[in-house]
Predict the 3D structure of the following.
Amino acid sequence: MKRYQVRAISIVLCLSMMVFANAGFAKEPLKKERSRSHTEIDPVNTGTYTGEAGKDNFIANCSPCHGETGKGDGALADTLGEGVKPRNLSDANLLSARTDEFLFKVVKSGGVSVGFADAMPSWQETFTDAEIKQIIQYVRKSICKCKYKDK
Protein backbone atom coordinates (compact mmCIF):
# COMPACT_ATOMS: atom_id res chain seq x y z
CA MET A 1 0.00 0.00 0.00
CA LYS A 2 1.28 3.42 -0.88
CA ARG A 3 2.02 6.00 1.76
CA TYR A 4 -0.77 8.38 0.69
CA GLN A 5 -3.31 5.50 0.84
CA VAL A 6 -2.31 4.65 4.42
CA ARG A 7 -2.59 8.31 5.39
CA ALA A 8 -6.05 8.57 3.73
CA ILE A 9 -7.28 5.46 5.55
CA SER A 10 -5.99 6.83 8.86
CA ILE A 11 -7.82 10.11 8.30
CA VAL A 12 -11.08 8.29 7.43
CA LEU A 13 -10.83 6.11 10.56
CA CYS A 14 -10.12 9.12 12.76
CA LEU A 15 -13.08 11.05 11.31
CA SER A 16 -15.35 8.00 11.74
CA MET A 17 -14.41 7.75 15.41
CA MET A 18 -15.19 11.44 15.90
CA VAL A 19 -18.60 11.05 14.22
CA PHE A 20 -19.51 8.07 16.44
CA ALA A 21 -18.36 9.90 19.57
CA ASN A 22 -20.48 12.94 18.69
CA ALA A 23 -23.49 10.78 17.78
CA GLY A 24 -23.93 9.62 21.36
CA PHE A 25 -21.78 6.50 21.26
CA ALA A 26 -19.15 7.91 23.57
CA LYS A 27 -18.43 5.98 26.77
CA GLU A 28 -18.81 9.02 29.02
CA PRO A 29 -22.37 10.17 29.80
CA LEU A 30 -23.13 13.72 28.82
CA LYS A 31 -23.63 16.14 31.65
CA LYS A 32 -24.77 19.64 30.97
CA GLU A 33 -23.67 22.21 33.48
CA ARG A 34 -26.39 24.71 34.22
CA SER A 35 -25.78 28.27 35.21
CA ARG A 36 -27.31 29.53 38.45
CA SER A 37 -29.97 31.44 36.49
CA HIS A 38 -31.30 28.20 34.95
CA THR A 39 -31.68 26.39 38.27
CA GLU A 40 -34.78 27.63 39.97
CA ILE A 41 -35.00 26.92 43.68
CA ASP A 42 -38.25 27.22 45.58
CA PRO A 43 -37.39 29.74 48.33
CA VAL A 44 -39.98 28.29 50.72
CA ASN A 45 -38.74 24.69 50.52
CA THR A 46 -34.98 25.10 50.17
CA GLY A 47 -33.59 22.39 47.91
CA THR A 48 -36.89 21.79 46.10
CA TYR A 49 -36.32 22.41 42.43
CA THR A 50 -38.98 23.88 40.21
CA GLY A 51 -39.15 24.53 36.50
CA GLU A 52 -37.07 22.45 34.13
CA ALA A 53 -33.72 22.31 35.91
CA GLY A 54 -33.23 18.61 35.08
CA LYS A 55 -34.24 18.83 31.43
CA ASP A 56 -30.74 19.00 29.92
CA ASN A 57 -29.48 16.04 31.94
CA PHE A 58 -32.62 14.05 31.12
CA ILE A 59 -32.34 14.76 27.39
CA ALA A 60 -28.60 14.03 27.28
CA ASN A 61 -28.57 10.87 29.40
CA CYS A 62 -32.06 9.41 29.86
CA SER A 63 -33.68 10.05 26.49
CA PRO A 64 -31.48 7.60 24.54
CA CYS A 65 -33.54 4.83 26.18
CA HIS A 66 -36.66 6.54 27.57
CA GLY A 67 -37.10 8.94 24.61
CA GLU A 68 -37.34 12.72 24.74
CA THR A 69 -41.01 12.52 25.71
CA GLY A 70 -40.37 9.65 28.16
CA LYS A 71 -42.49 7.08 26.31
CA GLY A 72 -39.74 4.41 26.39
CA ASP A 73 -39.09 4.83 22.68
CA GLY A 74 -35.55 6.20 22.63
CA ALA A 75 -33.00 5.27 19.97
CA LEU A 76 -31.46 2.60 22.25
CA ALA A 77 -34.76 1.19 23.56
CA ASP A 78 -34.57 -1.91 21.37
CA THR A 79 -30.97 -2.71 22.32
CA LEU A 80 -31.42 -3.47 26.03
CA GLY A 81 -31.90 -7.21 25.72
CA GLU A 82 -34.62 -9.74 25.10
CA GLY A 83 -37.91 -8.52 26.55
CA VAL A 84 -36.34 -5.50 28.28
CA LYS A 85 -38.02 -2.17 27.55
CA PRO A 86 -37.46 1.20 29.21
CA ARG A 87 -40.29 2.40 31.45
CA ASN A 88 -42.85 4.73 29.92
CA LEU A 89 -42.25 7.75 32.12
CA SER A 90 -45.20 9.59 30.56
CA ASP A 91 -47.59 7.05 32.13
CA ALA A 92 -49.13 9.12 34.94
CA ASN A 93 -50.77 6.02 36.49
CA LEU A 94 -47.39 4.31 36.86
CA LEU A 95 -45.44 7.35 38.07
CA SER A 96 -48.09 8.56 40.51
CA ALA A 97 -47.81 5.18 42.24
CA ARG A 98 -44.04 5.67 42.75
CA THR A 99 -42.60 7.92 45.44
CA ASP A 100 -39.82 10.39 44.69
CA GLU A 101 -37.62 8.35 47.06
CA PHE A 102 -38.24 5.22 44.97
CA LEU A 103 -37.44 7.04 41.72
CA PHE A 104 -34.34 8.54 43.35
CA LYS A 105 -33.11 5.07 44.30
CA VAL A 106 -33.68 3.74 40.77
CA VAL A 107 -31.75 6.61 39.19
CA LYS A 108 -28.94 6.71 41.73
CA SER A 109 -28.40 2.97 42.28
CA GLY A 110 -29.78 1.44 39.09
CA GLY A 111 -32.65 -0.89 38.28
CA VAL A 112 -31.18 -3.86 40.12
CA SER A 113 -31.48 -1.96 43.43
CA VAL A 114 -35.28 -2.23 43.21
CA GLY A 115 -35.61 -5.55 41.40
CA PHE A 116 -35.67 -4.15 37.86
CA ALA A 117 -33.41 -5.16 34.97
CA ASP A 118 -29.76 -4.18 35.06
CA ALA A 119 -30.32 -2.32 31.77
CA MET A 120 -31.17 0.70 33.94
CA PRO A 121 -27.69 1.80 35.06
CA SER A 122 -26.62 3.51 38.25
CA TRP A 123 -26.04 7.23 37.74
CA GLN A 124 -24.39 7.95 41.10
CA GLU A 125 -20.99 8.51 39.48
CA THR A 126 -22.48 11.01 37.01
CA PHE A 127 -24.99 13.06 38.97
CA THR A 128 -25.08 14.63 42.40
CA ASP A 129 -28.11 13.94 44.61
CA ALA A 130 -29.41 17.43 43.78
CA GLU A 131 -29.14 16.75 40.03
CA ILE A 132 -31.01 13.45 40.40
CA LYS A 133 -33.78 15.31 42.24
CA GLN A 134 -33.87 17.86 39.41
CA ILE A 135 -34.30 15.08 36.86
CA ILE A 136 -37.13 13.55 38.91
CA GLN A 137 -38.83 16.93 39.20
CA TYR A 138 -38.47 17.44 35.44
CA VAL A 139 -40.07 14.04 34.80
CA ARG A 140 -42.91 14.80 37.24
CA LYS A 141 -43.63 18.32 35.94
CA SER A 142 -42.97 17.98 32.22
CA ILE A 143 -43.24 14.33 31.22
CA CYS A 144 -45.86 12.53 33.34
CA LYS A 145 -47.37 15.74 34.68
CA CYS A 146 -48.18 13.87 37.88
CA LYS A 147 -47.41 13.66 41.58
CA TYR A 148 -47.15 10.70 43.91
CA LYS A 149 -50.60 9.68 45.12
CA ASP A 150 -50.52 7.91 48.45
CA LYS A 151 -52.81 4.89 48.45
Remarks:
- The first strand starts at residue 40 and ends at 41.
